[in-house]
Specification:
The protein is of the alpha/beta class. 38% of the residues lie in helices and 17% in strands. The chain starts with a strand and ends in a 21-residue tail after the last helix. This is Lon protease homolog 2, peroxisomal.
Length: 648
């Protein structure tokens, strides 16, 4: 039997007695069962069972994965009872009393002689042997371990058979301990025979309930680590599909129930007829089967119901995107026509613009407005027409095209498809790496990112601020090598947002009104190797946290600077000229600065001032209104917020 040794005491015993000895077989060790969890080993010796087994360690194997342990292969010798515990550490040693020996009876004749005139022990031994032979006969004899066990039944001493078989069949730990405590051979046979009979009845019931298969030899193989276990049974050809043994019959029912058009149904039935005549070893069998599985999974008759409410569609479009009146009007016109003509074919819309202006998000909004499923297909760098139309079935690893695969993914036959980067389709045999790189490098815009402005001795720079939240205990983490002033600005921003959370409808991860309740916030300033300090990032922190808590995106063409107070005022900062020039170099279109820095705009060159939209803010309400498309929720109602003016 193999035993895993993981506890500190047992590993110390293996190191000092087994591995340091001249021979493994020169040291007899005792194995006593207990129920202690190895993961919670303590200094105190746990309660031990009264009876154990003495054995010789035939093999010792050490390993460090997943944690240090030894695996011992032990040959049992006899039972023993602990008479006196001599010491507990570093490993337990005890004085024991031998209860039996390994070869007390070696043949049925000796067992009959020891049983006396009545021969009860001999009868029990014979019944047990017959039950063991019956149990092994119900298993697959072609498996080597089963054939070996059958030979052991004739070669092993009869007194060892109960111990050997009980260790292999499925029984509770309590039942195994009862067999271990049975010192007399007669008692051991009496306790083991019912367990063997119960296992045989279970196998008979399993064979009756299993549905026969054409190539099933009606043999059941029980698998267990280290031996045969007639408990958990596995069929030799079990694949986890129990609904029917004939896979082609199941596939035929699926084909007829898929509601395909008549031409497609004729093709599938023809392929299915060919499939039935093919042996599974043919390569074409797998290709035909995959083709039929794809045809069955396509949504031939599954579709979503369109939402044709023009007023609701207008609200959804306005909530998702600011302005874009021409695009919204085109979508609403399509809905109006669909109300009059339900069989209208879906139009094709072409969106043109640089990366990041919202082409992909507009397509998702259109799908949400119509109540349809949305699927995006990235075509950047694709150069093979088979990638669009599908590969020939004769090729190894052939797959359907992007469109068909998209229909299979969404599960309906009327989704909104977005063919992204259609102008970047390659033309060479190897493809266009630059076009494919565009698809990989374009990041998905998420809430919690804003652009700030910073001053350095070498001029101004733009500075990205990122925020993320996760479940926690309301902690605020700041990273990016920040100075004390910037850390204080972050705490000011958090306090102001918490005090105005209800006004701006800001929530935490579970929808509560306190943004920090059950939520941890992480605020990061990239370029962590550069030291950053100063109060001018206060408005940027407020904006990025407001975006995170509200789930709304900050405008990508906005940069800002300004110091904040606990009452929500925006105070002036220095370096306005350098900061504005940095924003202009980065392609920013709108710059938010404090109202009291308006006089500094005269220092900016006229050609730069013309190309930028300046917003001067007195308080954080005006900052948020300018940073988000369509303003920020709550600030449009003048009754909800008091007017705050600076007295500084």
């Amino acid at each position: 039997m193999r035993i895993s040794v993981e506890t500190a005491r047992n590993m110390h015993l293996v190191k000092n007695r087994l591995l340091k000895g001249t021979s493994l077989k020169s040291t007899i060790i005792g194995v006593i069962p207990n129920t202690r969890d190895p993961e919670h080993d303590t200094e105190d010796l746990p309660p031990l069972h009264s009876i154990g087994t003495a054995g010789l360690a035939v093999q010792v194997v050490g390993s460090n994965w997943p944690k240090p342990h030894y695996t011992l292969l032990i040959t049992g010798l006899c039972r023993f009872r602990v008479a006196q515990l001599l010491k507990e550490g570093p490993f337990p040693m005890a004085e024991v009393e031998q209860l039996d020996k390994l070869e007390q009876y070696t043949s049925p004749k000796e067992i009959s002689e020891a049983a006396g005139p009545e021969g009860e022990l001999g009868e029990l031994s014979q019944r047990f042997y017959q039950a063991a032979v019956q149990l092994v006969g119900m298993l697959d004899m072609s498996v080597p371990v089963v054939a070996k066990l059958r030979r052991l039944l004739d070669s092993l001493p009869r007194e060892t058979l109960p111990d050997v078989l009980v260790s292999m069949i499925r029984t509770s730990n309590k039942e195994k301990l009862q067999v271990l405590d049975a010192v007399s051979l007669e008692e051991r046979f009496k306790k083991t025979l019912p367990l063997l009979t119960r296992q045989i009845e279970g196998l008979k019931l399993l064979q009756k309930t299993r549905k026969p298969r054409p190539d099933d030899d009606k043999r059941v193989l029980a698998v267990r680590k280290g031996g045969v276990l007639p408990g958990r049974q596995f069929s030799l050809d079990e694949e986890g599909d129990d609904e029917d043994g004939d896979d082609t019959a199941v596939l035929e029912r699926k084909v007829k129930g898929a509601n395909m058009p008549e031409p497609a149904l004729r093709v599938c039935l023809k392929e299915l007829k060919r499939l039935k005549k093919m042996p599974q070893s043919m390569p074409e069998y797998a290709l035909t089967r995959n083709y039929l599985d794809l045809m069955v999974e396509l949504p031939w008759s599954k579709s979503t119901t369109d939402c044709l409410d023009i007023h609701a569609a207008r609200v959804l479009l306005d909530n998702d995107h600011y302005a874009m009146e021409k695009l919204k009007r085109r979508v609403l016109e399509y809905l109006a026509v669909r109300q009059l003509k339900s069989t209208l074919k879906g139009p094709i819309l072409c969106f043109v613009g640089p990366p990041g202006v919202g082409k992909t998000s507009v397509g998702r909004s259109i799908a949400r407005t119509l109540g349809r499923e949305f699927h995006r297909i990235a075509l950047g760098g694709v150069c093979d027409q088979s990638d669009i139309r599908g590969h020939r079935r004769t090729y190894v690893g052939s797959m359907p095209g992007r469109i068909i695969n998209g229909l299979k993914t969404v599960g309906v036959n009327n989704p909104v498809f977005l063919l992204d980067e259609v102008d970047k389709l390659g033309k060479s045999l190897q493809g266009d790496p630059a076009s494919a790189l565009l698809e990989v490098s374009e990041r998905l815009t998420l809430p919690g990112v804003a652009v700030g402005l910073a001053w350095t001795p070498l001029g101004g720079e733009i500075m990205f601020v990122e925020a993320s939240r996760m479940e926690g205990e309301g902690q605020l983490t700041l990273t990016g090598q920040l100075g004390d002033v910037m850390k204080e600005s972050a705490h000011l921003a958090m306090s102001w947002l918490r005090s105005n959370a209800k006004t701006y409808q800001l929530t935490n991860m579970v929808g509560g009104s306190d943004p920090l309740e059950g939520t941890d916030i992480h605020l990061h300033f990239p370029a962590g190797a550069v030291t950053k300090d100063g109060p001018s990032a206060g408005v940027t922190m407020v904006t990025v946290l407001a975006s995170l808590f509200s789930g709304r995106l900050v405008r990508s063409d906005v940069a800002m600077t300004g110091e904040i107070t606990l009452r929500g005022l925006v105070l002036p900062v220095g370096g306005i000229k350098d900061k504005v020039l940095a924003a202009h170099r980065a392609g920013v279109k709108r710059v938010i600065i404090p109202k009291r820095n308006e006089k500094d705009l005269e220092e900016i060159p006229a050609n730069v001032r013309v190309e930028l939209d300046f917003v001067t803010a007195r308080n954080l309400d005006e900052v948020l209104n300018a940073a988000f498309d369509g303003g920020f929720p709550g600030i449009s109602n003048p009754l909800t917020l008091p007017h705050i003016a600076s007295k500084l």
